[in-house]
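INFO worker-7 received task bundle
INFO bundle size: 2
INFO processing item 0
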Amino acid sequence: MHTFPNVTVDAKANVYFDGRVVSHTIIFQDGTKKTLGLIYPGSYHFGTAAPERMEIIAGSCVVTQDDTTDALAVEAGSAFDVAGNHGFTIEVKEGICEYICSFLAD
């Protein structure tokens, strides 16, 4: 189980793709941020500004980074990194994929 003590939560949801991807931002005391979210079945493309680590905490997905055609299957308990100023396509085939996105230092 993932818990984050002593954080501030932004109650306004980040809603993408007509509500098929939804997250909330949490802010730690040191100013760092993470998002906690859900991805419903479908295929979605995202771009990054800063490097990110996507940790899958429930469900599964298939990820293809923009610079490759190699698809990576990611199960709960695993993670993948995306470079800053980059993009990736994430596909959820069934169920709901739950994730924690950490924004990494350059």
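INFO item 0 finished
INFO processing item 1
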Amino acid sequence: MTASTTADLIEGGCHCGAVRFRITVRSREAVECNCSMCAKKGFLHLIVPECDFELLRGADALTTYTFGTHTAKHHFCSHCGIHSYYRPRSHPEQVDVNLRCLDGVDPSDFSLSAFDGQNWEDSVEELRARHRNRQ
């Protein structure tokens, strides 16, 4: 699949199924962050435009955690605790989906690049540039 010619509709959600969503995947490039939050959750980031994300059900099941600048909105299922997507600080106008929460998707099918979230301020512009270049 190439970012410019093919798009796939893929569904995903939390462990218990209370939260379900559908995304349009236009790129097989994802990010692995080493910040304390992402490392503990095992989150693999697939950032998609708002128009490529549709929450199918579960808005009422979501709980949101924020910290630091309170820009990132870390949503998780209040029933099973899974963080299937959130609003990232780096791209607050977009949706960041956990690659591990997509149905039938093997993370090895995606190109993973590293993001040094432990040094977020020094690294975020490179991440934003990479994301702009693939759109």
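INFO item 1 finished
INFO post-check item 1: The CA atoms of residues 113 and 130 lie 10 Å apart.
INFO post-check item 1: The chain has a mean pLDDT of 90.
INFO worker-7 idle
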